[in-house]
Amino acid sequence: MASNWAGNHTYEATAVVRPASVAELSEVVASNEKVRALGTRHSFSDLPDTTGVLVELAGLPEVIEVDPGSLTVSVSAGVTYARLADQLARGGWALANLASLPHLGIAGAVATGTHGSGDGNRCLSASVTAMDLVGPDGETWSTARGDADFAGSVVSLGALGVVHRLTLRVEPAYEVLGTQFTGLSWDALDGHFDEVMSAGYSVSMFTRWTDQVDQVWVKSRDGRPPVGGLYDAVESGTTLHMLPDGDAGAVTGQREPGPWHERLAHFRWDATPSHGAEIQSEYFVPRAHAPQAVAALRRIGRQLSGVLLTSEVRTVAADDLWLSGAYDQDVAAFHFTWARRPEAVHAAVELVEEALMPLQARPHWGKYFSLGSCVLERVHPKLTSFVDLAREVDPGGKFWNGFLQHRLGDVR
């Protein structure tokens, strides 16, 4: 059976099917007892898995239709952000933000609350204005902003049906300038966390939680790097990969303005993203607690060093989506790229969770974490409401799986 992108999870499903139409997708869903959608396989756990049939969305006919009047684009669920961004840019349109990897499928990224960075930028799911799904009986249904349960249906973890089409907000195309800095001291960050994270339209810090912040990537929409530099950090004269042994050729362009779709993501769509053989974890901490989270992670930095490749810190603006990591509050997102050593990663994740959970951290649903439903109920105020919604939409639990059972509880 196939495995996920990182190779750390092998799917247990009895079959993987690739419907070529929505009608065929409906037939597959209706005729099987257990079904889950499978996107670009970038989840680092058994989140997409099932004891039944996995449905690949990439076989659905491609749809990318911009409506200039409503400033939206309708797109089929199997399309990747790289493909969508390229097509939008050709027509003079843009998305407000992108994740680090443009390789991601849109439906999967939306369903897990995946995000980019920027004080004013919400997660990618917040750009959704409507969705079309196939329900447990094979019938199609739709939800749109303004509907009673829309805010609970977007970051759905695949529990409400198989999404086959989404409508997203767009805006006129723009340019982005990327500037990389090295060697930001902890003292500078301690005194200026908010200023550093607001130095551009999108800001990412990379560190191993030991000596310093190794790199800061600032992406601006005004065509100018941060005025006066970035405290005691030094502007890099060459393009950097965030990993010491990473290929800088895989990174999107720096030091000169370029089209948004070639600058906002960290990695080129035609290159291997990040390290490749890795496991990822991430936690959203209320923005007000970010300095405390930095201090807590610095205290355990040496203990993480044997398995941590790098850690990225970003900010995400609040939204109203029930299971979003930024539901009802601005957050700082603490991301960890681990070597693909599952036992060592599990031990490291437990250390990170012990450090961050007192600060009301929420895990990224698509990354690796160890928390169960008892803990998650305390940090996700709408989790019980979401389970009730899933029970209403899918009373037989066709789309429920082991991951959801452990993290959210019993839907039946």
Automatic annotation (TrEMBL):
Species in which this protein is naturally found: Nocardioides astragali
UniProt name for this protein: FAD-binding protein
Record-linked PROSITE patterns: FAD_PCMH (PS51387)
SUPFAM superfamilies linked: FAD-binding/transporter-associated domain-like
Lineage: Bacteria, Bacillati, Actinomycetota, Actinomycetes, Propionibacteriales
UniProt keyword terms in alphabetical order: Oxidoreductase
Superkingdom of this protein's organism: Bacteria
Segments forming domain FAD-binding PCMH-type: 9-173
InterPro entries assigned: ALO_C, FAD-bd_PCMH, FAD-bd_PCMH-like_sf, FAD-bd_PCMH_sub1, FAD-bd_PCMH_sub2, FAD_lactone_oxidase-like, Oxid_FAD_bind_N, Vanillyl_alc_oxidase_C-sub2
